[in-house]
Amino acid sequence: MAEKPCQCDDCQRFYKEHDRLIREFPTFKQQQELNWASIQSFRTLCSKVTDELQRELSERASNKNISQEDNHISDIEITEALDELDSVNAYLYAVEALMEKIFDTKISNNIELKFKEIAKELAPDPLNVDRLILNRLFHQTPDYPDKKNIN
Ligand SMILES: [Zn+2]
Questions:
Q1: Which residue ranges in the chain fall short of pLDDT 50?
Q2: How far apart (Å, rounded) are the C-alpha atoms in residues 97 and 94?
Q3: Which of 32, 34, 75, 145 is deepest in the core (most CB within 10 A)?
Q4: Residue 73 class from Cβ within 10 Å (0-12 exposed, 13-18 middle, 19+ buried)?
Q5: Centroid of ligand 1 to alpha carbon of 64 (angstroms)
Q6: Which tens digits make up the pLDDT trace of 66-83?
Q7: How far is the CA of 11 from the centre of ligand 1 (A)?
Q8: Which pLDDT value is given to residue 135?
Q9: CA 114 to each of CA 63, 108, 120, 122, 146: distance values in angstroms, whole numbers, following the listed order
C-alpha cells in the first residue's frame, strides 16, 4: 500500500514551490541557470553576513566600554552563528563545485523540447486560464510536436 504524501503546511508549500520551479523553468538550460544563481545568491548572502558578524565581534572586543544593552545580538549568539555559517559556507562551496560540472553539460534543442513537454505534464498550472487556452490551441495545431500523442 503506497503511503500518501504528507499534506502539512510545510510540505504543501514545498510541493507548490517545486511545481512552480518546474513550470517557470521548464528547460535543462533554465534549470542549470536557476540552480547556479540560487547557489551563488545563497553563498553571497551567507558570506556577507559572516563578514559582518566577524566585524561586529572584533569591534566589540576592541570596544569593551560599549554597554551590553546596546547589542541586541549576544556575543554567544554571534559565535554560534559563525560556527554554523562556517560549515554552511563550506558545504555551499562543495555544492558549487558540483554545479560547475552540471553546468558544463549542453543539451540539444530536441531534448530541450522533451524537457518542456515533461515539465508540462509534471507541473500543469490548473489555475492559469491563459495556459489552459494556450494548451488547447497547441493541441489543435497539426504541426505541434505533441499532436502525435493525442490520437
Ligand atoms: Zn509534511
A1: 144, 147-151
A2: 5
A3: 32
A4: exposed
A5: 47
A6: 555 567 889 999 999 999
A7: 4
A8: 55
A9: 61, 10, 10, 12, 10
